[in-house]
């Protein structure tokens, strides 16, 4: 997988209370990913970018919310998130600086 596709597949970490609980308890991490990304692409991107071994990838397509605006109804874009389970002994640290 080329480096350009890695950054197009992984859009960023999804930080929430549930994601933090999964990271602490089950060694799983949640990422926002491209809507057309496959599980194999996501696995290869995480392994290439963070230099860890991925055990399992689960994906969820999240429907955009319908919101009322001054001009009527509007809809937010659909997006996709991936739950990444790492092999035992592996870890991703988002808070450390790259020094």
Automatic annotation (TrEMBL):
<dbReference type="InterPro" id="IPR012677">
    <property type="entry name" value="Nucleotide-bd_a/b_plait_sf"/>
</dbReference>
<comment type="function">
    <text>One of the early assembly proteins it binds 23S rRNA. One of the proteins that surrounds the polypeptide exit tunnel on the outside of the ribosome. Forms the main docking site for trigger factor binding to the ribosome.</text>
</comment>
<dbReference type="InterPro" id="IPR013025">
    <property type="entry name" value="Ribosomal_uL23-like"/>
</dbReference>
<comment type="similarity">
    <text>Belongs to the universal ribosomal protein uL23 family.</text>
</comment>
<dbReference type="Pfam" id="PF00276">
    <property type="entry name" value="Ribosomal_L23"/>
</dbReference>
<keyword id="KW-0687">Ribonucleoprotein</keyword>
<keyword id="KW-0694">RNA-binding</keyword>
<protein>
    <recommendedName>
        <fullName>Large ribosomal subunit protein uL23</fullName>
    </recommendedName>
</protein>
<keyword id="KW-0699">rRNA-binding</keyword>
<keyword id="KW-0689">Ribosomal protein</keyword>
<dbReference type="InterPro" id="IPR012678">
    <property type="entry name" value="Ribosomal_uL23/eL15/eS24_sf"/>
</dbReference>
<comment type="subunit">
    <text>Part of the 50S ribosomal subunit. Contacts protein L29, and trigger factor when it is bound to the ribosome.</text>
</comment>
<dbReference type="GO" id="GO:0005840">
    <property type="term" value="C:ribosome"/>
</dbReference>
